[in-house]
Amino acid sequence: MRMYDIIAKKRDGQPLTQEEIDFFIEGYTNGSIPDYQVSALAMAVFFQDMNEEERAAITMAMVHSGDTIDLSDINGIKVDKHSTGGVGDTTTLVLAPLVASVGVPVAKMSGRGLGHTGGTIDKLESVPGFHVEISSEEFVNLVNQNQIAVIGQTGNLTPADKKLYGLRDVTATVNSIPLIASSIMSKKIASGADAIVLDVKTGAGAFMKSKEEAEELAKAMVSIGNNVGRQTMAVISDMSQPLGLAIGNGLEVQEAIDTLKGQGPEDLTELSLTLGSQMVVLGGKANTLEEARSMLEDNMKNGKAIQKLKDFLSAQGGDASVVDHPERLPVASQTFDLEAKEAGYIHEIVADEIGHAAMMLGAGRETKESEIDLSVGLVLNKKVGDYVEKGESILTIHANTSEVELVKEKLYNNITIKSGNIDKPQLVYQIIS
Ligand code: URA
Ligand code: CA
Predict the structure, then answer these.
(1) Relative to the alpha carbon of 220, which ligand is closest?
(2) 168 given a catalytic annotation
C-alpha cells in the first residue's frame, strides 16, 4: 500500500477502505508517513468529506493508536459527557455529582488546558486539599464505592489525534466535520466510555458559530458513536452569552454548589437537567428522559445531589465544608461593579469576549506556563433579556488588583443595552439521538 495512492483516491472523491485508513493512521503515528503527505490527505478530506464508514474507521484507528483506558472493573454503564467548550460552562461540576446521586457511575478523566477559565480539574482544586493524583486502582475503587471519581490525564491516549490535530492547526484543515468529529470521539472512546452525551455549543463563545454547523457536527458524532457500539446522544445549546452567572474557577464551584442545592441560575440548571437526563437514560437507570429528569430534580430538592458532592470532595482529600461555607473557597481581595451607563434591556453579552475579560483577570491560562488565579472572575447580575436601570450593576468583577480599567473597557464594549425589549435566547436548540 502506498500513501500516494491513498491521497490520490481521496483527492478524486472516492471513499477509503478501513485498511487504507488504518495504514495511514498507523504510519503517521510511528513516523513512517511524513507530515507533508498527511497534510495533503487532510486537505483532500476537507474538500471531499468522508462517509459514515470512513468516519467510524478513522475514529477507531485513532483510538488504537495509543493506550486505552479499561474501566471494565467499574460496575455499571460508564457514561461520559463532552462539551465542545464555552464560557463559564459549569455543567461538568454539576452533572458529575448529580447523575452519580442516582447511581450512574461517573469515572471522569479530565485535563487542565488553556482557556478563559481553567479546566474541570483546576476548578475542583479551588477546594482546599482536593487532588486528582490518585492511582488507577484507587480511581476504580472510588467509583465503585461512591459512583464518582475524577483522575488527571493518564497514559498515552490517541497520539494519532494529537499529531493530526497539531498538523491541521497549521494547514487550515481544522474546520472539517469528519476530522473534528473523529478527533473528539476518539478521545472519549479511548478514555473508556460505554456511552457518550455531547453538548455541542453554538454562538459567539463556541467553536461552531452557526446552528447549522453545530447540528452537522452533533449528527456526525452521534452517528460515529452509534456505529462503533457506543450509544451516543447530543444536545445543541446556546453559547451566545456565558452559561449561568459565574465565570471563574472558585466562583464556578460556588455556582455548582448552588445549582446542586436547587438554587442555581435557571439556564445552568436547565442544561444540567437536560444533559443529565440523557446520561441517566444511557446509564440504564431510567427508561425515559422524563423519568430521568424527575429523579434528578428530586435529588436536587432532597439533598442527595449536594451530599454526593460532599462525599466526592472528601474522598479525594478535599475540604467538603466549603459546601456550607463558601467563604472557605478562594476569595479575591477586591470587587468592582460594572454599572450600566444607560437604562434599557440587555441585548448582547458576547460570550467569548467576556471570557477573555475573565482571562485578563487571571482566571484562565493564555499559555501552558501561565499561572492561574482560582479566586478571580466575573459574576453576572443581568443576562440577555433583563432590564437594567442606569447605574445598576450589570456584573461584579472579582479581582486581585485595583487596575481593572482595561477589563471594564472590554466588558462595556461587549455588552449591548438598548431601549426596546428582547426575548431571552433559547437555551436548548435541538436534541439528537
Ligand atoms: N476539538 C478537538 O478535540 N478536535 C478537533 O478537531 C476540534 C476541536
Ligand atoms: Ca457559569
Answers:
(1) 1
(2) yes
